[in-house]
Amino acid sequence: MVFFCKKFVIGAAVLATLGTFVFGRDVVSYVKTAGNSVRDAVKAEVPVDFEVERARKMVEDLVPDIRRCMHVIAEQQVDVESLQNEIHDSELAMKQQKEAMFTLRSDLESSDTEFVYASRTYSKDEIRNDLAQRFDRFKVATDTLKRNQQILRAREKALDANREKLENMLSAKMDMEVQIEQLEARLKSVQAAETVSNLEIDNSQLTRAKGLIKDLNKQLDVKEKLLDAEGKFTGLIPVDTKVEEKRDVVKQMDEYFKLKSGDKVAVQ
User: Fold this and answer.
1) Is residue 91 a contact partner of residue 144, using CB atoms and an 8 Å limit?
2) Are 52 and 183 in contact (CB under 8 A)?
3) For every residue of 30-84, which 3-state class applies, written as one string?
4) In whole angstroms, what is the distance from residue 7 CA to residue 14 CA?
5) What is the pLDDT of residue 30?
6) What are phi and psi of 115, to 5 degrees?
7) Per-residue pLDDT tens for 107-132?
8) The domain 49-180 is classified under which CATH number: 1.10.287, 1.10.490, 3.30.420, 1.10.150?
9) Rounded Cα–Cα distance for residues 180 and 58 (Å)
10) For the chain, which residues make up each domain, given as ranges?
C-alpha cells in the first residue's frame, strides 16, 4: 500500500512538472479549461428527460426540509403561547401584590400600632418587615417580567421569520412544480416533432404508386373517349345508307316495248 502511494505521488509530480514545462504558468488555466470542457461534454450527452426527472426529484427533496420547518414553527408557537400565558399570570399577580403593598404602606404610615389581617393581629414592625419582603420580591418579579417580555419579543420575531421562510419555500416549491410541468409539456412536444421529422418514407414506392394511379386514370380516359366516339355514330337515323330497291322487270319491259298497262302482248 505504501509502495502504491509512493508511485501515485511520484506520477502526479511528474505530470505536474511536465505540464508546467509544456504550458508554463498557464498550466492551471489549461487544466481548469479541460475540466470544464469534459464536464460540458458529459452534460450535453445527458438526456433532457433525465434532467427533467432529476429536477422533479430535487423539488420533491424539499419536502423533508419543509416538514422540519413546520415542526420548528409548531414548537415555537407552543413556546410563545406558553410564555404569553406566563407573562399574563405574572402581570396579574404583580398587580395584586402592588395593591397589597400599598395597603400595608398605608397602614404603616398610620398612627396605629397594631393591625388585624385575616383575624390575626400584627405589630407595626411585622408590617414593615412583611412590606420590605414583598417589595423586594416585587422588584425581582418586575425584572423577571421584563426579561420574559424581551424573550417573548425575540421568540415572536423568530417565529415570524420562520413563518415567512416556510411561506417562501412553499411558494418556490409550487412555482418549480409548475415550471417542471411546463418543461415536461415542452419536452413531449419536442419529442413528438422529432418523431415526425425522423419518420422515413420510401419515396420510390410512393412515386411508383403515383405513377400507377396516373396510368390507370389515362387508360380509363382513353376508354371513355372511345365509348364517346362510338356513341356518336350509333342510335341515329341512317340518312347516308342506301337501300337497294327491288327491280321492276314488268315496268322495264312495258317501257321497252312501249306497252300500256293491261295490253295483251302478241308474240310473233
Assistant:
1) no
2) yes
3) HHHHHHHHHHHHHHHHCCHHHHHHHHHHHHHCHHHHHHHHHHHHHHHHHHHHHHH
4) 10
5) 44
6) -140, 145
7) 888 888 888 888 899 898 998 999 99
8) 1.10.287
9) 11
10) 1-45, 49-180
